[in-house]
Amino acid sequence: MTAAVSFRGVSRHFGTVKAVDGVDLDIAEGEFFAMLGPSGSGKTTCLRLIAGFETPTAGRIELFGEDVSGRPPYRRAVNTVFQDYALFPHLNVLDNVAYGLMIAGVPKAERRRRAEEALSMMALPGYGGRKPSELSGGQRQRVALARALVNRPRVLLLDEPLGALDLKLREQMQDELKTLQRKVGITFVFVTHDQGEALSMADRVAVFNEGRIQQVGSPEEVYARPRTRFVADFVGGSNVLHPGVAALFGGRPAWASLRPEALRLGPPEGARITGVVTAARYLGAATRLVVDLGAGAPPDGRSDVAVLVPGGHPVPAPGTRVGLAWDAEALHPMATE
Amino acid sequence: MRPDRAPWWLKAMAGGGLLFLHLPILLIFVYAFSSEAKTFVWPPPGFTLQWFGRAWARPDIWEALSLSLRVALIATLVALVLGTLCAAAVARTRFFGREAVSLLVVLPIALPGIITGISLRSAFSLADIPFSFWTIVLGHATFCIVVVYNNAVARFRRVSGNLIEASMDLGATYGQTLRHVILPNIATALLAGGMLAFALSFDEVIVTTFTAGQQATLPIWMLEELVRPRERPVTNVVAMVVVLVTLLPILGAYYLTRGTETVAGSGK
Which of B 33-62 lie inside 8 A of A, CB atoms? Predict the structure, then answer.
């Protein structure tokens, strides 16, 4: 099956800045795909390359097997939901939603009907006569979604779609976007710097750093088996163990990741590894402890690990010596570095 | 908190300021109806409407008025095209010397009109361009561009760049985006800029004296009338016309640009 979106050695350099640097990527049709990374990692530039707002300085971009590298945005079967929604302030909601249809030459009665349908699908029936300035942030987002989806694009691009919403609305929209994507069945590609958002919504996640893709995989893979130290650290604050420390834990002497929730506390007597609790942070459902192993700190690594103690378990006070237990398979050696 | 009521002396001073600004203009209006033809006498010995008839019947006034209107119209159109393009370039793109361009465009309005006039005159004679209707238009366009540019650049900066991308993302070409998104969003700014430009051009004297040949625009005609008066009140009638023709566009521009503090397309 041909991929919905594929990148072949794509680079986008701005002068000396390598915003995107040799990216290879395949996004399958119907997939909910997340591009995750810190700001400046190249994820947004990749989205803009798919939309056609940027042209690659090297490499090829294909949409459904067709090379679109030099094609302008208005000739791509792709629509975008912008971070600030970019609704047209001089048009009312209905005309905003119908804009793409108007440009495509759809007759007035039909585009009106389809725009109203799209608004109903986004739970905004009867809002057509309002101006974008009269809507709340969440409503604007729905209008932006309706405006993009009404054109029946083959790929929908979302640039930090939830960034401008408050926490409660953000969680609600995460569920709604996921449901919406299943309902319309088209490929969603979304950009986010929030690992929680990426893990909870996406079928697959690409983790970006400094213009390159560090790892592509399902949320479970990226979370449990990070390929690089950057991924381990960025996706959910895993313990990144120095080769020396990894060996202590019974692994190969290579960089390894060990999730804080995979560690269990026990009495120090008879434990293979013991340490001293140096800090505790209460998180509600759990408490995050920092345990200093004191095992002769390696030069460029840390000798302390984070341990997540689930609620209901006794939490030792700082200064207490504790023993650590873990399952051997939880220790995940990383391929590079 | 409600501000305290202004004390009586502050009100009196504000009233005095307004009188100082507008009383002379009111006097001109009154003199337009005076029955005394030679000098300004206060109070006017009698009131008459005959000067309106006289003014109406003078072909030189019609000629000057028509020239002024045509010059203002063409200069405004030239300024609308050039000023808008300039503003789009400065507000929308980054290039070497952008700040300098932005300053250079605004400079003509800061320069004394007499400098603009002298330099234009010497440039015209250097290039062997005879003085004509078009030399006046060119002279006026120099400062008309500035007001259009200023209005347009402010609006361009407030229209989010994403709107243009959104339009193209939804299938619109550059031309369609210009027509359906850019123009509707900058229309009022252009109209306001154009009206101000028109008003500026219509009552301009200094640059015109250097760039006009034998032709007289309405303000130039008035100046000549003051030097060798024939029928003073007729000049006052014309003055009223000038005030109205310049005041109305300025009021219009004020109403068009007020209440637009919200940033178009910022989305929040």
Answer: none
Q: Work out the percent of chain B whose per-residue pLDDT is above 90.
A: 26
Name residues whose C-beta falls within 8 Å of residue B160's C-beta, 6 or more positions apart in sequence: A84, A86, B263, B264, B265, B266, B267
pLDDT of residue A296: 56
Residue B155 and residue B129 in contact, taking contact as beta carbons nearer than 8 Å: no
State the first-to-last Cα distance of chain B, in angstroms, to the nearest integer. Answer: 28
User: Cα B51 to the chain's mean position, in Å?
Assistant: 27
Across the interface, whether the CB atoms of B185 and A72 are under 8 A apart is answered: no
The full set of domain ranges for chain B reads: 58-261
Q: Which residue among B170, B184, B266 sits closest to A79, beta carbon to beta carbon?
A: B170
Min Cα–Cα distance to chain A from B213, Å: 46
Confidence of residue B257 (pLDDT cuts 50, 70, 90): confident
Report whether A257 contacts A240 (CB < 8 A): yes
Give ipTM to 2 decimals: 0.82
Interchain pair A151, B176: CB under 8 A: no
Which residue in the set A78, A88, A102 is minimally distant from B163, CB to CB? A88
The series of mean pLDDT values per 10 residues for chain A, 337 residues long, is 90 91 94 94 94 94 92 93 92 95 94 93 88 91 94 94 82 89 92 91 94 94 90 85 83 86 87 87 88 69 82 86 87 76
Which residue in A has a C-alpha nearest to residue B185's C-alpha?
Answer: A90
Architecture category of domain B58-261 in CATH:
Orthogonal Bundle (1.10)
Q: Which domains does chain A have, with CATH numbers?
A: 5-228 (3.40.50.300), 238-333 (2.40.50.140)
